[in-house]
Amino acid sequence: MTVIALACLAWAFAPPAVGAQAAAVTTVHEAGPADFFQYPLPTWQEHCLAFGSPWRLCDGTVLRRCSGSGAIWLHTGFDAVTGIAPVMAAGNGVIAGYTVDPTFKGGMLIRHVTAEGVILTQYWHVWPRPGFRVGTVVSRGQVFADVADMGSLTHLHFAVYRGDFTTATAWRGALPPAACDGFPAFPNRFIEPNGFVQSHMAPLPTPTPHRCHLP
Fold first, then answer.
1. Longest Cα separation, the chain
2. Whole-angstrom distance, CA of residue 98 vs CA of residue 165
């Protein structure tokens, strides 16, 4: 079982096929500005790994080390507890990348234009809903995918990458603590997703004051 799980998660955070990358850079549609963001699930509880956690399974099994130093890679996103559930776009944007495997499920990237520059949000272990593909415009809170069934490993991986989709690094679910084996060092433009969402949430509406009317 552990071997199967390792194979599953190791694939899930590898770069997509060349076709998936090529499709992403030909996106021509544009979405409204992403002024605000939200979490992609209605509840948000840590599964096993947070941003910067050593990349291990829930039982402690290490998923990847640097071949020379033996350093454990670090997690680029946040894994949220969930069952098979709808996944919402974290902000206004355009689906910029999509890759899928019949066994190991899929990953999607959404490109957002913000006042701070381009942001990519990364969603792993999901299936896109019909009609949602590279180039599809989405709005904040719109359901575009569903969490994939991974048995006891079912969860949603969510990450935030500051920059455009120019290299396969934007797909990574983990990176080494120091550059090794041809991969850049963590965080390499990935930023802590919970802090990002919290600092970019829409303000709550101001309540209308209640006025008392005397007879």
1. 83
2. 12
Burial 150-168 (b: 16+ CB within 10 A, else e): beebbbbbbbbbbebbeee
Which is nearest to 157 in space by CA: 195, 119, 108? 108
Q: Please check whether residue 213 lies inside any domain of the structure.
A: no
Q: Which amino acid is at 154?
A: T
DSSP, collapsed to helix, strand or coil, labels residue 110 as strand
Task: Provide the phi-psi class of 26: left if phi over 0, else alpha when psi is between -120 and 50, else beta.
Answer: alpha
Residue type, 194: N
- Can you tell me which residue has the tokens 């499709």? 23
Cut 0.85: pTM above it: no
How many structural domains comprise the chain?
1
> Encoding tokens for residue 120?
């990519």
Provide the residue-wise pLDDT of the chain in tens; the chain has 215 residues. 333 333 334 434 444 433 343 333 334 456 788 889 999 999 999 999 999 999 998 899 999 999 999 999 999 999 999 999 999 999 999 999 998 766 558 999 999 999 999 999 999 999 999 999 999 999 999 999 999 999 999 999 999 999 999 999 999 999 999 999 999 999 999 999 999 999 999 987 767 665 655 55
| Residue 152, domain member (yes or no) | yes
In a domain, 106, yes or no: yes
Q: How far is CA 141 from CA 41, 129, 199, in A?
A: 9, 14, 17
Domain that holds residue 143: 2-199
Q: Which H or E run contains 196?
A: helix 193-199
Q: The domain spanning residue 56 has which CATH number? A: 2.70.70.10
